Amino acid sequence: MTIHPADTRVGSAGSTSASRQTYVTGGAVKNTCENVREKVLEIGRAKFGSYHPAWATAELLLEGGKVVTDGGEVLADLVDVLEGEAVDLELEWRHRPTEAFDLRTGQGNGHVQYSFAAHRAVVEVDTELGLVKVIELACAQDVGKALNPLSVVGQIQGGTTQGLGVAVMEEIIVDPKTAKVRNPSFTDYLIPTILDTPTIPVDVLELADEHAPYGLRGIGEAPTLSSTPAVLAAIRNATGLELNRTPVRPEHLTGT
Known about the structure:
Elements: H1 20-48, H2 54-57, E1 60-63, E2 66-69, E3 74-77, H3 78-82, E4 116-126, E5 131-142, H4 149-168, E6 202-205, H5 222-239, H6 250-254
Parallel strand pairs: 5-6
Antiparallel strand pairs: 1-2, 2-3, 4-5
Helix pairs in contact: 4-5
């Protein structure tokens, strides 16, 4: 199969960003491939169907350049089915429609999909100096289907590290009188480095979303949300302090 080069004349499909990219592009490619397969099988049935009943009765697959049954029996080579004919399809694919939430119950399919992640933080706190060290920030996340397992773990660990930064380091300081940002560069806006990043064990759960291509779910965004409150909950547990803002600074712990 050959995918044609991108043609911007087809119109906008939205941004090529975030978790929607694998979902939307993956859905479009999967849908087109399935239709190409069916077209190839139609051609094969018309040419060879009278020679073998499996063309009409068996579940047929395209594997290794051949048409095979789900039991592994080879029915024909693709080159013999197509005989130089090209199957050229251009199709659109869209995700399932959304609907407004029920105003009374707050329930409904207001979004295409939902992501699920949970974190457990282990911290050490020096209450005299106001220092916090995050020892471990473990995550369990439902990814639906891990199409690229190594990248999935990397996305979860990256999102977790972003949430860590929000919990104990990152803060945009705005002058209340002028509304100007007072830390306009990374010199004055601290983000986590490898030295600040704790051990991040990841438990990948593959609970397929029946509405999604291949069952996948969005990955990178969810851990940025649950890692921050996990760190704050651990610090609260260690200190007994309320700590109702981020980032947690030394003066919040020492009361100075």
